[in-house]
Each structure stands twice: as C-alpha cells, then as structure tokens.
C-alpha cells in the first residue's frame, strides 16, 4: 500500500536526477527496498505530521539512491526525454498549474550538466545546504556554491531566451 501510494512521488523525485525512464524506475525500486528494509528505524512524530515526516524520509532515501546511481555512472548525463505518461502518475500535492510549471522547470534543469543539475536540485528543490550537498556529492563546499551559481545563471538565461521568443511570436 505504501509503495502504491508513494510511487508517483518517488518517481518524480528521482526524475529530477535521472532522466532515463528505465533507469529511474530501477532507482525507485532500489530506493523502496532501502525504505522497507529500514522502516523499523522510522520514528513518527505527532499523528498529524506522520505522513509529512514519512514523505520527507522517503524523499531523502530516493535522492540518495539517485545520487549513488549517478556516482556509479560517473555522473554521466542521461539521454532521452521524460515519457508523457510519467506525468499522469498521481501525486496528491499537485494541481494543474503546478504540474505545468514543474514540467517546464524539469525540462530546463535537464539541460544542465549532471553536477550542476544535482547541486541545483539538492539546494533549491530539496532544501539541502552546501555542507550537506558537499557531503552527499563528495565535492568541496566551494564547488557546490559555484555549481549552484552557474546553474542559476544558465537557467536565468534560458528563461530570458524563452520569454524573448514568446514576445517575438506575438
């Protein structure tokens, strides 16, 4: 039941790091194996916060599993698009507008190098600090900061180009 309810959430989390669908599915399954093997270590808080805490714990496991997979592949870029049917996997936290913005952001982030993409995802989307990112990716803190700065600059340029293209079409 946990697997079915949180599969979409886990897959979307992993897709921020790994863009090959077949590889992402494998990583999600590996992550769930880790999740279920360590479920006895999960310490729920107040009843109202238990689901949020569980999702946060699952998210962290999925991110670490994806980073481990990238590390095994020497952080090589993934090739291929994200299949449209992936966006149809339900996740309770999204509405239509959020899904559209999420899709656009993921497409832009996909164009970043693997290291820039990983640092951006970890810092901006997943809320890690530079010290934690440096530890996870096994890089110096300064490298984490410079990767984030470069990723932001590249994304800003990409957004400006898209806006200019839209204005020119009008």
Task: Kindly list the characteristics that best describe this protein.
single chain; 170 residues; mainly alpha; Rna Polymerase Sigma Factor, Chain: A; Arc Repressor Mutant, subunit A; 2 domains; 0% strand
Q: Mind sketching the topology for me?
A:
Blueprint: H1 2-15, H2 21-37, H3 50-72, H4 96-110, H5 114-125, H6 130-137, H7 141-169
Helix pairs in contact: 1-2, 1-3, 2-3, 5-7, 6-7
Description:
The protein has 170 residues and is mainly α. It has two domains: 1-94, Orthogonal Bundle (Rna Polymerase Sigma Factor, Chain: A); 111-170, Arc Repressor Mutant, subunit A, CATH 1.10.10. It has helices spanning 2-15, 21-37, 50-72, 96-110, 114-125, 130-137, 141-169. Helix 1 crosses helix 2, helix 2 (21-37) packs across helix 3 and helix 6 (130-137) packs across helix 7 (141-169). The N and C termini lie far apart (49 Å). The model is unreliable at 79-90 (pLDDT under 50).
Number of helices: 7
Helix and strand composition category: mainly alpha
Per CATH, what is the topology of the largest domain? Rna Polymerase Sigma Factor, Chain: A
User: How far is the first residue's CA from the last residue's CA?
Assistant: 49 Å
* Net shape: globular
The gyration radius over C-alpha positions equals: 17 Å
Helix content: 55-70%
The count of strands amounts to 0
Order of helices and strands: HHHHHHH
Regarding quaternary structure, how should these chains be classified? single chain
Low-pLDDT segments: 79-90
* CATH C-level name of the largest domain: Mainly Alpha
Number of domains as seen in the coordinates: 2
- Named at the architecture level, the CATH assignment of the largest domain is Orthogonal Bundle
% residues in beta strands: under 5%
What is the mean predicted local confidence, pLDDT? Answer: 80
Largest sheet: none
């Amino acid at each position: 039941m946990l697997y079915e309810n949180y599969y979409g959430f886990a897959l979307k989390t992993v897709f921020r790091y790994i863009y090959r669908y077949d590889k992402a599915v494998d990583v999600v399954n590996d992550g769930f194996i880790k999740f279920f093997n360590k479920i006895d270590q999960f310490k729920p808080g107040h009843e109202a916060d238990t689901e949020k805490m569980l999702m946060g714990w699952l998210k962290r496991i999925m991110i670490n599993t994806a980073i481990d997979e990238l590390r095994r592949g020497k952080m090589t870029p993934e090739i291929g698009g994200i299949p449209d049917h992936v966006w149809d996997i339900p996740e309770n936290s999204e509405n239509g507008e959020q899904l559209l913005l999420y899709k656009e952001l993921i497409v832009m982030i996909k164009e970043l190098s693997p290291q820039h993409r990983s640092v951006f995802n970890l810092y901006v989307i997943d809320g890690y600090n530079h010290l934690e990112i440096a530890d996870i990716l096994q890089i110096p803190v300064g490298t984490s900061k410079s990767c984030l700065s470069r990723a932001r600059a590249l994304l800003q340029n990409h957004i400006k180009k898209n806006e200019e293209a839209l204005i020119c079409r009008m």
